[in-house]
């Protein structure tokens, strides 16, 4: 069975979660991507943040790892390991307007809108909300 190990940041600023959407998925997801070669999970997290959003960040702490048994888009059976890190941006955004970067729609979405189901989101975001790694009452 195919195995994917990926890493990405969870960034909340002013009650908004940083999410992205690209043309291959019909839902919003956290920035992130697969580990290349001997890269560390932390390096992958920060590299993907920069590549997909243009932002520079720093890691605050490790969050839960989410394991999936199928690709959420294709439904193909595979082992997916998603490593998440609570991160902060090096420079706060000037505004929270959506923009495009390297083929990704980059958006800052109020947490309550995610909880209310106003945006289609990847399963790992739902699990991080459920586990309290993303807490709308604390962020």
Keywords:
single chain, 139 residues, alpha+beta, Nucleoside Triphosphate Pyrophosphohydrolase, four-stranded mixed β-sheet, four-stranded antiparallel β-sheet, 8 strands, 19% helix, 40% strand
Describe, in plain words, how this protein is organized in 3D:
The chain has 3 helices and 8 strands, in the order ββββαββββαα. It is an alpha+beta fold and 139 residues long. It has a single domain, classed as Nucleoside Triphosphate Pyrophosphohydrolase (Alpha-Beta Complex), CATH 3.90.79.10. It has a 4-stranded mixed sheet with strand order 4-1-6-5. It has a 4-stranded antiparallel sheet with strand order 2-3-8-7. It is globular and about 45 Å long. The model has no long low-confidence stretch (mean pLDDT 92).
Write the layout of secondary structure elements.
Elements (H helix, E strand, L loop, with lengths): L2 E8 L1 E2 L2 E6 L11 E2 L6 H13 L3 E14 L6 E13 L9 E3 L2 E7 H5 L7 H9 L8
Parallel strand pairs: 1-6
Antiparallel strand pairs: 1-4, 2-3, 3-8, 5-6, 7-8
């Amino acid at each position: 069975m195919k195995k994917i190990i990926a890493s990405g940041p969870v960034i909340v600023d002013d009650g908004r979660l940083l999410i992205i959407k690209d043309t291959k998925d019909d839902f919003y997801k956290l920035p992130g991507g697969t580990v290349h070669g001997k890269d560390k999970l932390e390096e992958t997290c920060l590299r993907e943040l920069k590549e997909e959003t243009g932002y520079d960040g720093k890691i605050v702490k490790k969050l839960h790892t989410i394991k999936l048994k199928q690709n959420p888009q294709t439904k193909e059976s595979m082992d997916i390991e998603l490593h998440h890190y609570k991160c902060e941006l090096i420079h706060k955004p000037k505004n929270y307007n959506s923009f495009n970067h390297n083929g990704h729609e980059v958006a800052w979405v109020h947490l309550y809108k995610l909880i209310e189901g106003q945006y289609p989101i990847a399963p790992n975001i739902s699990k991080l909300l459920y586990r309290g790694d993303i807490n709308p009452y604390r962020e």
